[in-house]
Amino acid sequence: MSMPPRSRTGSGPLLAGLIIAAVVLVGIVALAAAGATPASVWNSFFPMHGTGGVTDRSTSVQNLYDIVFYIAVVIFLLVEGLIVWSVFRYRRKPTDTDLPPQTHGNNLIEVIWTIVPTAIVIFLFVASWQTLNTVDAAAPAQVNVRAVAAQFQWSFDYLDEQGGTVFTQQLPSGEAGGLVLPVGEPVHIELRSADVIHAFYVPKFLFKRDVVPGKDNTFDFTVEEPGTYGGQCAELCGSGHAAMVFDVHAVSRAEYDTWLTDQVAQANATPAPAPSGEAAGPTIELEALNVAFNTGTLEAPKDAPFTIHFKNDDNGVPHNVEIKDGGGAEAFKGDIVTGVTETSYAVPPLPAGSYTFLCTVHPNMTGTLTVQ
Amino acid sequence: MAVDTAALTAAEPHGQAEAHGSGGIGNPVLGMLLFITSEVMFFAGLFAAYFSIRANFVNPATGAHEWPPQEFEHLLNPFTLFTESGALNLIVPATIILVISSFTCQFAVNGIKHDNRTTFIRNMSVTIILGITFLVLQLYDYSVLFGEGLSMSSTTFGTTYFTLTGFHFAHVFGGVLMLGVVLYRGMAGQFSGRHHDMVEASSLYWHFVDVVWILLFSILYLL
Amino acid sequence: MATTTLNPAAPAYRSTLYEWLTTTDHKKIGIMYLINSMIFFVAGGALALVVRIQLVTPKNADVVGGLVTPDFYNQAFTMHASFMLFLFVIPILAGFGNYAVPLQIGAPDMAFPRINALSFWLLPLGGLLMASGFFVSGGSAAAGWTEYPPLSSQLGTGTDLWIMGLTLIGTSSILGAINFLVTIFKMRAPGLTLFRMPILTWTVLVTSVLVLMATPVLTSALIMLFIDRNYGGHFFDPNNGGNAVLYQNVFWFYSHPAVYIMVLPAMGIISEVLPVFSRKPLFGYKAFVFATVGIGALGFSVWAHHMFTTGAVFLPFFSLMTFLIAVPTGVKMFNWIATMWRGQLSVSTPLLFAVGFLSMFLIGGLNGAFAAAVPVDFALHDTYWVVAHIHYVLFGGSVFAVFAGIYYWFPKMTGRMLGEGLGKLQFILMFIGFNLTFFPMHQLGLAGMPRRIADYASTAGWTELNVLATIGGFVIALSTLPFFWNVLVSLRNGRIAGDDPWEANTLEWATSSPPPPYNFDHLPEIRSERPVFDARHGRTAAH
User: Fold this and answer.
1) pLDDT given for residue A271 in this prediction
2) What residues in A contact C360, CB-CB < 8 Å?
3) CATH classification for the domain delimited by C23-536, as one of 3.40.50.300, 1.20.210.10, 3.30.830.10, 3.40.980.10
4) pTM
5) Which candidate from B39, B69, B163 shows the least CB-CB separation from C216?
6) Domain ranges of chain C
7) Are B19 and C111 in contact (CB under 8 A)?
């Protein structure tokens, strides 16, 4: 039994064309409905929506990406074009009863389409190697920070010239936390793992490096634009992997100096006496386990102090409870405690309203506190 | 249902165990060579780990780059007859026994190739006995090492030693079983000068096991 | 030539189930490989839907939120990948090899039929062991299918079950490879020289060499991990002389060749389908052979490109080798297009899936080139860009080729044709769903979304693309329905196929559909790589 010759002018290409048109149309409509513009669609093909990186090295990474991208686009259009063309142009017609020419091959063309791609990839390799030398270059840095990755939070040790720790930033993110760095000068980062493999990744740096236990990776860079840049662990490290976020705050040298001095002073100052007196008001229960609170909703009475009895069941992981009002201002911040432990937070009276409670160390741990 | 009886009766009367396909080495022998290749790659992975670990080793107790770590320094010296605590050190005799067993194994193969079943059975039996002796001596050696405090968790020195020698032990054990089956089949008259593929295949495996031991011994004990 | 008519055909003296459970016939074993693999494809797909539902929107406002706990989420993507790679892609291609290779070389069966059966039965056993992790305390393996220590050393019994299951699956592969190599080298019909073998057989040959040389190294990595986990070993423990990156080196030394194990036979299938449906020979047969061997060899030299960000790799060498491996792959792509060029294409389902393969694998190859550029990889590693890449090559590539193969060989296996309408429906839905799911992942990776996270911030700007990807996931799931329906209906009522419904080229089409247990009543003269074509067109002179 043989295949009947298919009609070239039959419904096939029409149907295919209609389906393709329908899909494209639906696609465009959906994109438009989601707020996409041609510009934003184009930008989505480039790192960080086309805004690129913010370090002295990220520009060369962007440039390398662009080179690879444009070559890839040309190759894609050419090859895909040939594929699509072949399928439409060379469909079997009813008049095609004889076999087509049974071409077995062509040595010359094999040589050509081996040598040309080899040349292209060698070019890409050389471009990539040169960029690598830029990205991995050491730079003499005055600011030396050790980023410590643990399950499931980052902390940052600011080091002096001898490698001793001047100050440890325990809060990996937020306005009062994060990796604060001066803009415009080289920074040296050392990576240390307290347990498993993690990875230090700041998308706006167009860079990441693994944090490997037993091997302290290091790298240098200069942040060129002031701002706050989100970072995140990029190597699966367990159940709290998604919680290991951090912020990089790139500020002026003067601000950096002031900040660091303040932090050192605060750390050295005698801690304020713990609020005395028994826990006042009603007690609400809250637990943290597996880098998550056990509930997303809490209620408390308005205009009266109350207590949060907080159980941190995550062994070795620091948590706390912080309360922010509707505008994002801090209403209360409890001390950070490392599990497994319990503590009671005496929360001052809060006016009625809807608040957010979260863990300062792991801000993905959040919920809603209704005060009424 | 029409059947081409001529094609059926012309089919190869013996099973695939005797298939020599397009000539040259038999299928079981080729299969065994390929299997041995895969086992070589398995040991290659373990050896790669060993060399990588050894090259970068820092003794957690002393902080020094030393291999073996100081506390286990004399444990793997093959040339002392007695260890420091007075136990017999039989690793060299064990090695010699295993090497001899490869020779007796080959004599067995040569015997059956020449249709000499007596030579085959005698040499194969000796091979198996020597193989078992090696296993016993290896176990004894392990007990001595445990007594000296070397275990799987004695830094990576212990881990690599026991893993490498342990898997070799497992391969020798499997080889003894295989040779045992071959001996049994030989005694039941299943092999002859014309049909002895499994004897050849098993002997190749036995030689492989021997070569791995020589490598292991040289690397773990001598290097 | 004497003929005897057996009338009626001798009845089976064993039940059909017993027959299948104890068979050593490569054709039945091949079909069982296909069935077992499809079962794990569905299981792996279900786990993928769990992942997609979890990620459809961020849930930080709802702290208990999400479909599953982060712990279970880690198990879900770990087992999704483990099922898909080890229990679906690799075995189903081995299954096609099992079915087709002896037929294509004119042999009555594989060299070692009983070991062939063992190879098969190790698969459901290994799969069950792996899957049983879901039912033990602590759940299944959950450190990714890559199971890097120290994380994988920390987790519970599910990881041990994963290790043991995978060791059995690896053994199945290695035994299969030995079988294929001996069969191909020793049991080819007279006249079937190596350079007249079908390309599928060539790819199975090279793949078997890869399996033989690489899989044992995986076994060694698994055993070292098992020893670290259970016997106080320190292979990967930096506090006692070990090295966490050592695992990655040993693991990827296997797992990179493994991806060629997952794609070369798929390319072989495409190389069977395209010539038949273009009515032309494969363009550049020898180039295909050399390219296949080249990919296999080069494939052993690139493993550390999975480890560029560890800081422990000699970057320029691995970057160069990774770029170079694009060349033989490109040669194949051009030769496939040249096969279609000036042909007479029948746009049936096998061809559609083959063309889908070409388009999607092209994208997968191109986005892989970005990762070969080390500094770009620093930005894209462990982000959704990589998830896009792996799915374009494995799903758009291998899975599409698998469906091409199913539609192509189903008639040979069962004697009936699969329905074209349902086949085309499946293709359209699967093509759309696949691209809808995975194309946005390029954008997500470029926008900084890491892999293997159970949740993400609502302020990250990743939500819309995740919604698209989840919708696509359900479209893919939908697309499997016409396929399964097609199979069920066609088994009973499909059009009778006959020996050679496609006017094909290779020896499996020279016998009945399905073939008799001994495969061939008689073989045509073999004078080229297209013996059936030659016989059909009366060509017996060598060319």
Assistant:
1) 64
2) none
3) 1.20.210.10
4) 0.92
5) B39
6) 23-536
7) yes
